[in-house]
């Protein structure tokens, strides 16, 4: 059994791609009020939620249980509507040495969009499950954000 792996999920959205991506780079701090699976988000290091290397503390619901971690943005590519995140410390470090999340928003011909989340991970040992619960978390959160933006 391999210790490293990749998992992906793609979600179809009704919101236009530019508007959907924009919330990630301008209103990330509001996700705790938009997504039911985000219990808490706080700035840990830095003073801007939307720039690389600022560190945030998150409490999420993954697999039905509270899950604490730190997150920092590693890269933002506005032209390709993509962001790279590093998740570390807290509960994530109990099972994974490496946990990176790549997201990209794609335009669709019908005016909507899709978002693809790819998780690259390295487990601490072979007894650890692949992070399938995070795929569900990202899928459901993406839909919560889409619903919020459609009402706005």
Query: In which range does the helix fraction lie?
Result: 10-25%
Count of helices?
Answer: 3
Mean pLDDT: 96
Named at the architecture level, the CATH assignment is: 2-Layer Sandwich
**Can you tell me the CATH superfamily?**
START domain
Classify the fold: give the CATH topology.
Answer: Alpha-D-Glucose-1,6-Bisphosphate, Chain A, domain 4
Ends apart, CA distance between termini: 46 Å
Q: In angstroms, what is the radius of gyration?
A: 15 Å
- From N to C, what is the helix and strand string? EHHEEEEEEH
| Secondary-structure content class | alpha+beta
CATH structural class: Alpha Beta
Number of E strands: 7
Low-confidence stretches: none
How do the strands line up in the largest sheet? 1-7-6-5-4-3-2
Number of domains: 1
Largest sheet: 7 strands, antiparallel
Beta-strand share of residues:
over 45%
GO molecular function: abscisic acid binding; protein phosphatase inhibitor activity; signaling receptor activity
InterPro entries: Bet_v_I/MLP (IPR000916), Bet_v_I_allergen (IPR024949), MLP-like (IPR052006), START-like_dom_sf (IPR023393)
Organism: Arachis duranensis
Protein name: MLP-like protein 34
